[in-house]
Amino acid sequence: MLRCVCLFSTWMRYADSDGELAVQIACAAIEARLLGRSMRPFEVPARFEEKTGAFVTLNSHPDGELRGCIGYPQPFFPLAKTIEKAAEAAATDDPRFPPMRPDELDRVTVEVSILTPPRLIEVKKPKEMPAHVTIGVDGLSIAQGAYRGILLPQVAIEENFDAADFLSLARRRVARSRHSGLHVPGRGLRRSGSAWACCAPEDGGGACGSLEGGCSSGAAWTP
C-alpha cells in the first residue's frame, strides 16, 4: 500500500527558545558522536520529555548541499532523545552519504524539524488529495511496503511546486525505489511541524532562526 502523510505546520506550540535548545542538543549529539566522547547533559522543559517525532537535516556550508537527513516521524522517544538519535544518525548513518568527519563540524548547518503526532485524513478520489495540501505548511510521506520517503514542507517552496507537483514528486520517489508502478493513495495522515536551523560556526556565530520546513534537498530517510 502507498500512503500519503500531510505534515500540517502550526507555529504556536514551540517557541524560538525551544528551537534553539533543539538545535543545541542536535549539535552536541553530533560532536559527541564524531569526537568519541560523552554528550554533555541538558536541562530540558517538560515538553522535551514528551514522546515526539523529529528530523535533523545537515547541509554543507556555505554551498547548502544536503549532507544528511534522518528522522523519526512517529513519537517513539521523548523529544530530547529523538533529536539526539536523529542527529547522530544524520551525521553517520544516512545511507546516501559517507559518515561525517570531525573536520566537517565547522562546515555544516544543523536544522531540526519537530513534528506532532499524525492524524488521519481521507479522500474519496485521488484527485481530491491536492486540495488537502497547503504549500509551505504541509509535508508529505509516502510508503510502499518497506520503502518510505518523506518530503518536509520547505521542499515545495524551494522547488516552486504546487500541491499536485508536490504529491507527484513524493509518489515518484517511492516508485523509483521499488521500480514499480504507482498506486495513488486515497488516505493519509496530518501532523504539525516546526523547524529551526543554526548557522555553521565559521559564519560567525551559531545564531538560530525558525524555518518553514525540513530537508532542503527534497527527501529524508527514516531508520
Notes on the structure:
- It is a single chain.
- By secondary structure, the protein is an alpha+beta fold.
- It folds into two domains: 2-7 and 119-190, Hypothetical protein ph0010, domain 2 (Dna Ligase, domain 1, 2-Layer Sandwich); 16-117 and 194-211, Hypothetical protein ph0010, domain 1 (Glycoprotein, Type 4 Pilin, 2-Layer Sandwich), CATH 3.30.700.
- Helix content is 25%, strand content 26%.
- The protein has four helices and ten strands, in the order βαββαββββααβββ.
- It has helices at residues 16-35, 79-92, 154-158, 163-178, and strands spanning 2-7, 53-60, 66-72, 108-115, 119-122, 140-144, 147-151, 187-191, 193-198, 208-211.
- Strands 5-8-1-6-7 form a five-stranded mixed beta sheet. A five-stranded antiparallel beta sheet has the order 3-2-4-9-10, covered by helices on one side.
- A hairpin with a 5-residue loop joins strand 2 (53-60) and strand 3 (66-72).
- The longest helix is centred in the N-terminal third of the chain and has 20 residues, at 16-35.
- The protein starts with a strand and ends in a 12-residue tail after the last strand.
- The model is unreliable at 1-12, 179-192 and 199-223 (pLDDT under 50).
